[in-house]
Each structure stands twice: as structure tokens, then as C-alpha cells.
């Protein structure tokens, strides 16, 4: 058993470490010129990991993407979205909504998306920009069931703002 004082001390140190990362003006992503920002206190465990890229997906038996690219930029997937295939649109919608990604507005007015994990960052960086035939699809998030390790899934209850229908969307880990 770990004494509570050690757990509290560890959480305090992790929070302070995350603040030091935020304050470091030399920690900049070279590709995007974005300064560092710790979105959670588990940043220490994430340091040194490679960037995660969502390479492949399988929707109703059809594979999109490949080992060398980004599945969300796959021409076949984008064509399937623009042609209105319902299963593909549902898949992309669930990926865009069922997460803990937060939009953050910079001082210049640019909007960036921050995720709690590299997995969510890889899935949602491009998902939010997929064009659904130039239409805006709005959902109101009614409730979020977080991703606990024993349940191995995250669920979000949303209301479609156009037709007022309520959906329970879920993602799961293998």
C-alpha cells in the first residue's frame, strides 16, 4: 500500500513539472511552430514517445489507408465520405465526437486542438477537418463516460442539433 502523502506529493510534482513544460519557451514543435502545452499531468510518461499516426482503418470490411500514410487523408475514405456512405460517415463522426479533444484559441485567433493522449491526437487532428459535402453537422454533448482501464471504452451521449435525435456513441480499445 502506498501512503496517501506520497500520492499527493507525486501529483503535486507532476503538476509542477507540467507547468515547467508550459513555461519553457524553447520547447516548440518544429513542423507547426506551436509552443508546448501540457494538457494533463501524465506528460512525464508521454515524453520521448514517437508521434502517433492513424494509418489504417477497416469499415464494413473495406480497408482505408496504408502503412506509410494517414488513413484520414486516404482518397478512398474521402470519396466515401463525399458520396455519403452511411457507415463511413458514422465512423468518422464517432471519431470526431467521442474523445476528450479540446479546441484552444491562441492569442492570434487560430484554433488548435489539444488531446489528452497521442492516440486521440492522431485520430482527431484530421477528422475535424473532413468536409461532409460542405455541410455543417452539429451535435450537443449531453454526457461523457470517460475511458476507464477496466471498461476499455469511451462513450458520449449526443443530440443531433438538426433532427433532435439522441445517440450513444462509443469507441473501444482492443
TrEMBL record:
Any one GO cellular component localisation term in the record: plasma membrane
UniProt source species: Vitis rotundifolia
Database matches in InterPro entries: ATPase_P-typ_cyto_dom_N
PANTHER family assigned: PHOSPHOLIPID-TRANSPORTING ATPASE (PTHR24092:SF19), PROBABLE PHOSPHOLIPID-TRANSPORTING ATPASE (PTHR24092)
UniProt GO MF annotations: ATPase-coupled intramembrane lipid transporter activity; nucleotide binding
TM regions (residue ranges): none
Designated name of the protein: Uncharacterized protein
GO biological process: phospholipid translocation
Amino acid at each position: 500500500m502506498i501512503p496517501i502523502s506520497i500520492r499527493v506529493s507525486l501529483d503535486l510534482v507532476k503538476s509542477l513539472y507540467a507547468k515547467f513544460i508550459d513555461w519553457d519557451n524553447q520547447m516548440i514543435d518544429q513542423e507547426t511552430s506551436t509552443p508546448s502545452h501540457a494538457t494533463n499531468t501524465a506528460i512525464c510518461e508521454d515524453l520521448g514517445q514517437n508521434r502517433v499516426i492513424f494509418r489504417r482503418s477497416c469499415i464494413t470490411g473495406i480497408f482505408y489507408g496504408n502503412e506509410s500514410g494517414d488513413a484520414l487523408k486516404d482518397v478512398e475514405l474521402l470519396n466515401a465520405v463525399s458520396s455519403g456512405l452511411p457507415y463511413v460517415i458514422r465512423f468518422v463522426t464517432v471519431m470526431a465526437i467521442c474523445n476528450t479533444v479540446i479546441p484552444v484559441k491562441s492569442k492570434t485567433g487560430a484554433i488548435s486542438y489539444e488531446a489528452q493522449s497521442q492516440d486521440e491526437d492522431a485520430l482527431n487532428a484530421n477528422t475535424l477537418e473532413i468536409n461532409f459535402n460542405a455541410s455543417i453537422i452539429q451535435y450537443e454533448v449531453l454526457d461523457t463516460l470517460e475511458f476507464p482501464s477496466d471498461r476499455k471504452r469511451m462513450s458520449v451521449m449526443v443530440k443531433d442539433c438538426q433532427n433532435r435525435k439522441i445517440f450513444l456513441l462509443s469507441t473501444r480499445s482492443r
